[in-house]
Prior knowledge:
The chain is an all-alpha fold. It is about 70% helix and about 0% strand. It has helices at about 5-30, 35-55.
Amino acid sequence: MAEIVNLRQARKQKARAEREAAAAANRLAFGRTKSERDKAAAERERTERELAAHRRGSADPETG
Length: 64
């Protein structure tokens, strides 16, 4: 026999879970200090420079 489900409660539970997921994503994106953001940006720039240095060819003939 099937389980009886209260649709109103199921809707509210789903909405609550979606809000919690959005809040978790916002905490990751906006819940960091300025020094943490700066450190992450510096790390991203450093890895980009390292990748660019290891590329074989270049689209710009002046850079080699």
